[in-house]
Design brief:
37% of the residues lie in helices and 27% in strands. The protein is of the alpha/beta class and 249 residues long. An 8-stranded parallel β-barrel has the order 1-4-5-6-7-10-11-12, surrounded by 6 helices. Strand 8 (134-137) and strand 9 form a beta hairpin. The relative contact order is 0.14.
């Protein structure tokens, strides 16, 4: 079970939003590379990065910041936001990303996702962001008529490495992950699912260890880590089945 710390990039800075609204951005670090290294030093083994400007613009905007992150950490990095073409996927993977996350294009052009999965096995994840149970696209600015499970099932057997499922209504507001919807999705498909949006406390970390959540690949945490609501050592100890006291010593 993986806990993915999140770095959301806006104008080259590490920020967090509420409900995906760019106007609500809180700046947590103006040096994303240093933040990436800090997460590695805390014991995290993966990193989740989103180019927020890119998600709205439809092309990578924070490339320099992502490049600096890749140089700063040895951890594998997954990146989403504005990646819409095979050429962009190939370029990012060549630069050292462990995997790319395709969101809007997964709705607009599912065949491109399937093509990418064949070309880059194990390197392509799908981001499904939902509001009221319906998939949102273009940086969450537009709603589609697609249901979450309906979209996910389009990629069964395609070779998608993971589905990152975000409940927009909970993102950045520390109300807890939508466990029911997340586990329903994981039950409906064979693709590994990563929970995102709302992770708030150690209670959510403990919830990840429950039997019905064991099918998940993990969960993403942003604001709760930055605000100190979750102690990294304690969270990682819980997920790894180690004594918390040992992890803090």
């Amino acid at each position: 079970m993986i806990l993915f710390p999140a770095i959301d990039l806006k104008d080259g800075q590490c920020v967090r939003l509420k409900h995906g609204d760019m106007a609500t951005a809180t700046i947590y670090n103006d040096d994303p590379a240093a933040q990436a290294k800090a997460f590695e030093d805390q014991g995290f083994e993966w990193l989740h990065v989103v180019d927020l400007n890119g998600a709205f613009k439809g092309q990578s905007v924070n490339s320099a910041a992502v490049g600096a992150i890749l140089k700063a950490t040895k951890n594998p990095v997954q990146l989403g936001g504005g990646i819409r073409t095979i050429a962009q996927i190939e370029d990012w993977l060549a630069r050292g990303l462990a995997r790319v996350i395709l969101g809007t294009v997964a709705v607009r052009d599912p065949d491109l996702v399937r093509q990418a999965c064949k070309a880059f096995p194990g390197k392509v994840a799908v981001g499904i962001d939902a509001k009221g149970g319906k998939v949102a696209v273009e940086g969450w600015a537009e709603a589609s008529s697609l249901g979450v499970i309906e979209l996910a099932k389009k990629f069964e057997g395609a070779g998608v490495a993971a589905i990152i499922y975000t409940d927009i209504d909970r993102d950045g507001v520390l109300t807890g992950i939508n466990w029911d919807a997340t586990i329903d999705l994981a039950d409906a498909v064979s693709i590994p699912v990563i929970a995102s949006g709302g992770l708030a406390s150690i209670a959510d970390i403990v919830r990840m260890t429950m039997p019905d959540a064991q099918k998940l690949e993990g969960a993403i945490s942003g604001r709760a880590l930055y605000d100190g609501r979750i102690d990294p050592a304690e969270a990682l100890a819980i997920l790894q089945g180690r004594p918390v006291a040992e992890a803090k010593s």
